[in-house]
Amino acid sequence: MATLVLTAVGSAFGGPIGGAIGAALGQKIDGALFAPAAREGSRLKELAVQTSSYGTQIPAIFGAMRVAGTVIWATDLIEDRAKSGGGKGRASTVNYSYRVSLAVALSSRPVARLGRIWADGNLVRGSDGALKIDTQLRFYSGHGDQQPDPLLASAEAVGQCPAHRDVAYVVFEDLQLADFGNRIPSFTFEVFERDGPLSLSALFQSLSGGDLLAESTHSIVGFAAGGANMREAIVPILNAFPVELITRDGNLVVRDVGANPDQPTQIVVAVEEDRRELDPPSHRIAPAGQIPDRVSLRYYDPDRDYQAGVQNSISKSGGRGEARLELPAVLGASSAKRLVELKAGHARYARSTLTASVVTSAILLQPGDCFLSADGKKWQIDEIEHGFGTAHIKARMAAGLVPVDQMIATPGRHIPSVDQSIGQTRIAIIDCPLIAERDTNQAALAVFAGGTEAGWKRAALSIQNAGQLIDIGGTAPQAVIGTTQNALGSHNALLIDEKSSLQIELLNGSMLLANRDTHPLASDAPVFHMGGEFIRIGRITALGANQYRLSRFARACLSDQLSAPAHAAGSLIVWLDPASARIIAATDYHIGQTITVEAQGLGDPSPVVEAAMAHGRAITPLAPVHGRARRQANGDIHLNWVRRSRLDLGWVDGVDQLMVEDREAYHVTLLADDNILRDWTVFENALHISADDYACLGIPSGSELGFSVQQIGRFTQSTPLLFGLA
């Protein structure tokens, strides 16, 4: 008796995928799909780590996937050395930075486009294509007309650089490594081979080169194919999805399990064959302990930024152990839940098996066909042993439908990397007064920078000097910068402004101010700069939508202004947070010079240019205040005033301002009708002119007397305090 055994594939966990295939299928299909395994195909863990080993397999990407890629070319680390500061007996600072250029292969077949990029898990290229790191990026889709990358071609010998056709890859040129601890980070890439779902039929036909006919209605989001042959590439799909392999007209066909559920094959039980009595049909139910009580499926979840997700099916039928499936494909949580419930259901129904001999003279039976038994149960044929007009079949009970409520699932909690737009750079160059914790011997010409969007991080800075641009490094952490929404009137600088308020809107949502309600002269009161005026703020109230209301002002502080100017709506306002100040080295300019600064961030099409005058406020003492001159009864003249410090640490009752000069000293000048008659240098905040000394000056009667007092600082004198004789 001639015998042929065919096996339905994909019917159970790790089912008889490598079973015997009929000779009619031909050696081509058998060799291409079911050659002996050399090594395992792709698994989820392989796509999590970027590699650079020689001979590493590059997966073929279908649909949308997140892949680590393989480094196929790289330069050595390139060291850049920048010297800053120094001069006038001070040591300079040498800063080192490192960069590298590299090429990373993404797919061994062409793809359509490149999506997001992560470095060490942090998003460095958003969905809008904007880079959030300092580098040049070029993407090659892998099509047949692809040309060699110019950087790779220039680094290799003439004619020795391949175009890497049929390989999709990216090139990073001059990737700055400061943000990654001066090492090459681990990149992962979102790659789109197509937009929209990927049908299993299209996937099978592409992987088999058309040798495998596919009639599956299932679809996924993406798949990374790998392995030594086609068999290893498709086995994970066959094991996870409810599909089966059948033969039809000498071809191997993949179809959905139960593809024709409403048209079961009619069979007739055979009693005898060639005058030999046949065994009656036999129904067997395997022990429950032979099936798993839990089935889990690991997959890539697009709602988790393609990170691995797990869906489980837990049975209460008394099974044992856990069956684990790994699917290197991208699909939604509900689709994965449906798959795992279907697989668990198939395993439970497969406990029931039926063996019988049937008549085949009128019908052609093959593995995968369904039939109804006498009791109305549906069975699916797994194996057929053909005889003369009869066939001995082995079937399993066909799985029922999975309830809809068991197909709904969530991907679980996921905290994604925030995809924020970078926006454009905004800078303010401010000749700052002496800021706390700053060197009292250094000017403080500072650059405060921020961005119009929350994704802004930093910008490169350069200053113009004699027609040349000098690189001075990057900006400090983002400053709090905004614009005023209403006008602010002028005010006496010697009085607290309790009535005025100012509503401001910050450039982006990542800039924050803390609510406060204190005195503006408190030591921790923030100082803002607006239109050349420094303002201490006592009250800050958040209004929402990046807007705040400021009130309770100490106007024109940290300066010699006696009257605070008015400001129009739309004025730029900057919080003088020391952590956000990028101080320009004193060796890069001189006092009295107009400094032009260029800043360019990753989102700036052209540099942002601002200019400011270097006054040296931080090293210039403040003019004294409250000057008084009184003529006493004996003709003597007594002068006194109040000292001010250029380091303002706020008001503390009973405590003098900190002395930051070498000593307290003043230059006092006597004027008569605006003519200088005499000057003195005194070392206290008072001067006594006796009547005799005054008479010796020969001042004409009726002259208008005036006095000028300047504080003598370590580097220069303050502006004069002018007052007359009371």
UniProtKB/TrEMBL annotation:
The domain of life is Bacteria
Q: Which Pfam families match?
A: Phage-tail_3, Rcc01698_C
Domain spans labelled Tip attachment protein J: 230-385
Which residues belong to any copy of the Rcc01698-like C-terminal domain?
479-574
Q: Which InterPro entries match?
A: J_dom, Rcc01698_C
What this protein is called in its record is Tip attachment protein J domain-containing protein
Query: What species is this protein from?
Result: Sphingorhabdus rigui
